[in-house]
Amino acid sequence: MSYEKPLPIIDEDNAPYWEYAREHQLRMQKCAGCGHIRFPVSLVCPRCHSLETEWTKLSGKGKVYSYVIYHQAYHPAYKDDIPYAVAIIQLKEGPRMESNITDCHMEDIEIGMPVELYFDDVTGDVSLPKFRLGEGG
Question: Do residues 67 and 38 make contact, with C-beta atoms less than 8 angstroms apart?
């Protein structure tokens, strides 16, 4: 069975992010100049404009910052998932990222709810970061 949903576009800039995801690690760029952890991937630190960066491992714990529950499939590949949640997760280490919240009743999702990361191996090359209820935050 093949994966029919849209996949991320992997390029030379974001390839390390997706390589770590395949290894079930959440890593984001950390500025070697000022220590700012940034997401999405960028060539320049938005705080100090340094070009020096390293990939730092994050805990995968966080809280729901905002969310929406889809009751209509805007792409045909998602029709069997309705309803599903897309959220902005405030990670413990600072950055925010967009992902799905799964493995819970949609009515149980709320702002500030602690969540934990897991990886969904959707193809042999792509593991998507997703979140479920957790002790995060």
Answer: no
| pLDDT (tens digit per residue) in 115-124 | 999 999 999 9
Task: State mean pLDDT over 11-21.
Answer: 97
The verdict on 32 and 94 lying in the same domain is no
Which pairing describes strands 61-70 and 53-57: parallel, antiparallel, or unpaired? unpaired
What gap in Å lies between CA 34 and CA 4, rounded to an integer?
Answer: 41
Tokens of 130: 């997703």
Helix, strand or coil, per DSSP, at residue 97 = strand
From the DSSP assignment, how many helices (H) and strands (E) are in the chain?
Answer: 1, 8
Asked, for residue 1, whether it belongs to a domain, the answer is no
Are the beta carbons of 64 and 109 closer than 8 angstroms? yes
Give per-residue pLDDT as tens, 42-55: 999 999 999 999 99
CA 89 centroid distance within chain: 8
Range of the domain at 124: 59-137
Q: What is the DSSP string of 42-93?
A: -SS-TTT----EEEEE---EEEEEEEEEE-S-SSGGGGGG-SEEEEEEEETT
Structure tokens at 69: 């529950």
